[in-house]
């Protein structure tokens, strides 16, 4: 579970950092050729690349999730809960069987009483 949270946190941070880094790089001219563009073109291109960078991060996160093994993420039941549930089921089965036996014996008694009355 902690691995999933760690991957989610890292990806979330990358979704904030990547577009801001692209915008910062275009604004201060760290990206080659950006200084030769007009202000409008610089804004448009940096915005498009920032959106593409977010989509790449999301795609990377999806790929990581798809590669994750199913066996490691399969939920496992709590052993204490299972033991208590089995004990409860066994207890209710014994109570049900003893009440059925009591009903059968009481049914015989009523039949005998009916036979004596007739």
Describe this structure in words.
This protein has 118 residues and is mostly helical. The chain has two domains: 2-73; 78-118. 83% of the residues lie in helices and 0% in strands. It contains four helices and no strands. Helix 1 runs antiparallel to helix 2 (39-67). It is rod-shaped and about 95 Å long. The N and C termini lie far apart (74 Å).
List keywords for this structure.
single chain; 118 residues; mainly alpha; 4 helices; 83% helix; Vma21; endoplasmic reticulum; Vacuolar ATPase assembly integral membrane protein VMA21 homolog; cytoplasmic vesicle; membrane
Helix content percent band: over 70%
Please count the helical segments.
4
Q: State mean pLDDT (0 to 100 scale).
A: 80
Tally of DSSP β-strands: 0
Structural class label = mainly alpha
Topology:
Blueprint: H1 2-27, H2 39-67, H3 70-73, H4 79-117
Subcellular location: Endoplasmic reticulum membrane; Endoplasmic reticulum-Golgi intermediate compartment membrane; Cytoplasmic vesicle, COPII-coated vesicle membrane
Protein name: Vacuolar ATPase assembly integral membrane protein VMA21 homolog
Keywords: Cytoplasmic vesicle, Endoplasmic reticulum, Membrane, Transmembrane, Transmembrane helix
In brief, what are we looking at here?
By secondary structure, the protein is mainly α.
